[in-house]
Each structure stands twice: as C-alpha cells, then as structure tokens.
Amino acid sequence: MTNTTETINTVAPKVEAEVLSGPTPRQILLTKVLGHKGLMFGAIVLLTIFLMALFAPLLAPYDPYHQDLMHRMIPPVWDAKGSWENILGTDHLGRDYLSRLLYGARISLAIGAIAALISGIIGTSMGVAAGYFGGRVDACVTFLINVRLAMPVVLVALAVVALFGGSLQVVITVLGLLLWDRFAVVMRSATLQLRSMEYVTAAKAIGCSTKRILFSEIMPNIANSLIVIVTLEMAHAILLEAALSFLGLGVQPPTPSWGLMVSEGKQMLLFQPWMIAIPGVALFILVLAINLLGDGLRDVSAPENRN
Amino acid sequence: MLVYTLKRLGLALLVTLAVSMLSFALLYLSGDPAAAIAGETANAEDIEAVRIYYGFDRPWVVQYGEWMFNAIRGDFGTSYYFKLPVSQLVAERLSVTMLLGVCGISFALLTAVPLGVAAAVRPNSIIDRIALFLSVMGQAMPSFWFGLVLIVLFSIKLRILPPSGSDNWQNFVMPTIVLGYYAMPAIMRLTRAGMLDVLGADYVRTARAKGAGEFRVMFKHALRNAIIPVVSLAAVQMGFMLGGSIVVESIFALHGAGYLAWESIGRNDLPTVQALILVFSMFYIVFTFLSDLLNAWLDPRMRVG
User: Fold this and answer.
1) Is there a single domain that holds both residue B107 and residue B155?
2) Chain A residues 201-220 with CB within 8 Å of chain B
C-alpha cells in the first residue's frame, strides 16, 4: 500500500487530494482478502481441485472405467507393496484409484455447483419475495420453509432416488429441490432489513417499477450474503451426495463418485483401510476448502455477522 | 403466552398436515403400487384383485383421507415386506433411535458447551484454537466416513468396541460419537458467541464489581444467559439428528428406525417409508415447537413475533 502511495507521489506530486483520500474500497477489500489466511487457503485448494477436475482427462494416468482383474487392490505407493505404476493403487476391480479420484472430483463439483444453483434460485426468489412484499406472501413462504425443514432430508432424498433411479441428474435435481431452505431464510431476513432503507423508499418515490427495485436496489445489496450461502450449500450438497452414494442410493456404479468409492472400499475395510481413507480425505479436503472460503468471505464482506 | 402457544400449535399442525400430504404423494410418484405388491409373476387379473383389495382403485383424496385418519389413530397400514402392522415395526425400532438421539445430543452438549465457554473466556488462546479446529473438522468430515474411521480404529486395530449390532451399550459408543460430533460445531460456535456477548454485558461487570468469585460470575451470571439460544438450537439439532441417524445406523448396523427406513426403501416397502418420514418430521416439529415455547417463556420479547 505504501509503495503505491509513493509512486503516485513521485509521478504526480501535485495531486494531493488523491493521496489524502487513501485506498479505494476495492483496494481495502483486496488487502482484506489477501490477508485472510483461511480464505486464501480455501480459495487456492478449491481452485486446485477445480483445475484437477477440469483437466482430469489429461492428468489421469489411466481410464477410470478400465478394469484389470489381474491387478486388483494394489496398495498405494507409500505402502511396501505399492508401486509407481498406480500411485494411489487400484480398487477391487483393478481400476486405477488416482484416475477415479480425479474423475470423482468432477462429480462432486458438478453436483455441488448445480444443486446450489437450483436451490439458490428457488430459495432466493422465495426469500426476497417474502422479505419485500411481506404479509400473505411472507406467511406463505415462512410456512413452506417450515414444511421443508420438517422433512428429513436424507430419508426423503433416499426415497425419491429409489423411485426415480440413481442417475446424476436425479441426484442433482433432488438435492436442488431440497436444499433451498437456508437461502430462503437468510435472503428473507436480509431483504426485510433493506426494505425500509432510504434508497429503497427513494426508488419507490421516483416511481421505479417493483422489478427495478428488486433487481437494482435489493439484489446488489444481498449479493454478499448470497455468495456465503452458496458456498455453504455447495459443501452441504457435496456431503449429501457422498452420503447418498455411500448408502447405495445416489450416483450408481461404475461412476467414480467419492461417496461410492468409500462404499466400495467398505467391503475391504479389514485388509485395505487405505481404500476408504483416500476418497474420504479427498471429500474432507474439498468440503473444508469450500467452508473456509465461505467463512472467509463472510468475515471479509460483513465482519459483524461473524458466528 | 396463551395466544402465542395456540398460534404455534396451529402452525405445527398445519406443517404436519403438509408433510403428511407430501409423504403420501410419494406413493403416487412411485408408479403402480398394486403391481409392486402382486410381484413380477402376477397377471393383469391378479394386479386388479390386489388393487381392489388394498383400495388403490379409489380416488386419491379418499385414500389420503383414510390413511391420515388411520395415522392419527396410530395405524399406518401393513408393511408390504414383513406383513406386520407398520406402527408395531416402527415402535419397536424407534426406542433404539431415540436412545441414540439422546446419547448423541448429550455428547454434543457435554463437549460443545464447556469448550465454547472455555474458548470465550480466553479468546485466541490455545483452547480457543482447539475448539475452532474441532468445529471446522466436524463441519467438513462426512459422518459416514468418520464412522468407518472409528470402526477401523476401535474395532479392527484396538479391538475394544464391536463394529455393528445393537445389543449392548458398547454398540452405542461409536454411533453416539459420530452423531454427536455432527451436532457439536453449531452448538459450540453459538455457546462461544453467546458467552462473548454476555461477558461484555453490564450485569457481568456489576457481578464482578460486587466481588463475586470468577466461578460464580461464569456460571450463575454469564452462562445462564448465554445458554438460552443454545438450548433451543439443541432442540432443533435433536430433530435433525433423529432424521440424520439413518446414515449412522446403517454404518453400525444399529437396528433403529433409521436402519428400518434404509432397509424399507431398498425393499420398496412404501407404507413403512411413509410412516417413517411422517414420524421423523413429527419429531422435528415437536422439538421446534417446544423450543419456541421455551424461548417465549424465557424471553417475553419473542412472544410478539
């Protein structure tokens, strides 16, 4: 920061007003973001996993679906019996574990992102409508939130997946339709606070349409908390997908889902504990990174909302 | 208070009604239940006979009304798989799940509250860091995976706890830890935040000023006030935990209602699944209702909302 000020000083020493005004809000935000360890850690790890998922076809040493029954359950390289041929070993069908792990990242990220997108659209529109219009709309939305919260998510998701079959699309849709509650709750209270703000009243007074007020006055001001909820729900969806796949009613074999890999490794629990350790640690790191990113964003954007 | 209670009760009943409709709708989404009961070898006539026997030929409103009317009296129909009354099956299994839920929430409270208090008393100390670390871990760790890690550790390596079953108290140790750890982070964060708030309050300063001992200040003055939101959160978490016990019960083969739900979904045993969805929802509704009342009783400002 001091460096920038000095360069400005040397280049144009006459512009004193700019120097006095100090760093811009954007610069302050950037300093905060770069100085927040958790946020940076989360962002870097998440970006790495995203790139690994994106370039999985280039990075994966083998085809994740290719079975080789002659080379089953080879332990990873750090084990005495492991080799560099299969760095993370092979599973019970001889498929390369590293390749499956890389492709599995695609499943987890896709499910997290799309489910959060669907539930975000549903929950945000419900929450904003409830907060802005109040009255009957609010009563209706609050009731729907209560109904949704009362339904046991895992049980309902399992039942629906059992009925419609465990494809990726079904799992994403079910999670998207089930996880909108937090969006609705937070967006509702955020909008309630904004509704009585002076700039909203001003916009009403000069005759702005409701649509314009919602999109240009309300939405930009709730965007910060929205991003935080998106990260939380992404993590939630990823964990739920893994749990559903683990219970056998999520993504179906032979798709390389991390939850499914843990479930397949469960049968070898006694002799090959690394088979559950590797996908489990992968899941843990991914969710941890997303949570740290979300917590960090909340700290940076609204320090008063901490805890 | 009476008006508030009645309002809340009315809302709870409406929510129950809506959930019951949704869980009943599952039967309709699932295709032809008569064909499922009759089995794969049945011909069209058999299926028709089954349909009439079970009353699937009537309009859905009538069927829903009958199901709901019976459900209120505790009759959820007959399980397709066991050929036993669903209510009997559920009641048998529910005691295990409830025991697990009580153990789990006790474990969560007993670890989260002391940790949260200790973290708030000395912010940024080692204890605060450990508490934060534990809660971040708990939020990111998939509970099914944590369960398997415990099995590897305590059942396979150390051989001190049984990996599955539900006969002894030893069977409940690991499920309690897994389920409790799932609820712990939220409770701990709330305790810590509440204590930090309260410790800065005027009445705590007054208590210190009049010479009350540190122990007395902490527990008589501060914690009593900070614990109010924690109690209501714990009630809500308890509702979530019972619904989430399905994962834990299936890992440890603990024969509770969650395990029954998982098995019944696999067996296409819809009456049992419907009943269980309704029962788990009821738990959540009852717990939130109680926590709302408790809050309103402790804090009169809540009664307006």
Assistant:
1) yes
2) none
Query: How high is the mean pLDDT of chain A?
Result: 83
Same domain membership, residue B97 and residue B60: no
Contact B246 A151 (CB under 8 A): no
Each residue's pLDDT tens digit, A96-151: 888 888 998 998 999 999 999 999 999 999 999 999 998 899 999 999 999 998 88
Q: Does A145 touch chain B (CB under 8 A)?
A: no
Does residue B119 share a domain with residue B41?
A: no
Asked if residue B87 is part of any domain, the answer here is: no
Confidence of residue A2 (pLDDT cuts 50, 70, 90): very low
pLDDT interval class at A255 (50, 70, 90): confident
B168 and A CB contact within 8 Å: no
Contacts of A292 in chain B (CB under 8 A): 136
Whether pTM > 0.90 for this model: the answer is: no
Cβ distance of B265 and A162 shorter than 8 Å: yes
Q: Is the minimum CB–CB distance between B302 and chain A shorter than 8 Å?
A: no
Disruptive mutation site among A144, A154, A231 for chain B (greatest number of B CBs within 10 Å)? A154
A38 CB contacts (<8 Å, ≥6 apart)?
Answer: A292, A293, A295, A296, A299
Q: Do B116 and B47 share a structural domain? A: no
Cβ atoms B245, B280 nearer than 8 A: no
Q: Which residue of A has its CA nearest to B141?
A: A284
pLDDT 10s digits, A61-96: 878 887 777 777 777 777 777 777 777 777 777 788
* Model ipTM over 0.90: no
Same domain, B194 and B101: yes
Determine, yes or no, domain membership for B79. no
Question: Do B63 and B209 sit in the same domain of this protein?
Answer: no
CA separation for the pair B155, B175 (Å, rounded): 13
Question: What residue of A is the nearest CA neighbor of B264?
Answer: A159
* B64 and B99 belong to one structural domain: no
User: Is B29 part of any domain?
Assistant: yes
Query: Which chain A residues have a beta carbon less than 8 Å from that of B242?
Result: 152
Between CA B80 and CA B54 the distance in angstroms is 11
Give how many domains chain B has, as a whole number: 2
From B22, B37, B72, give the residue that closes a domain.
B72
| A146 and chain B in contact, CB less than 8 A | yes
Question: Least CA distance to A304: which residue of chain B?
Answer: B193
Mean pLDDT of chain B: 84
- Residue ranges making up the domain that contains B46: 2-72
Is A284 close to B192, i.e. CB distance below 8 A? no
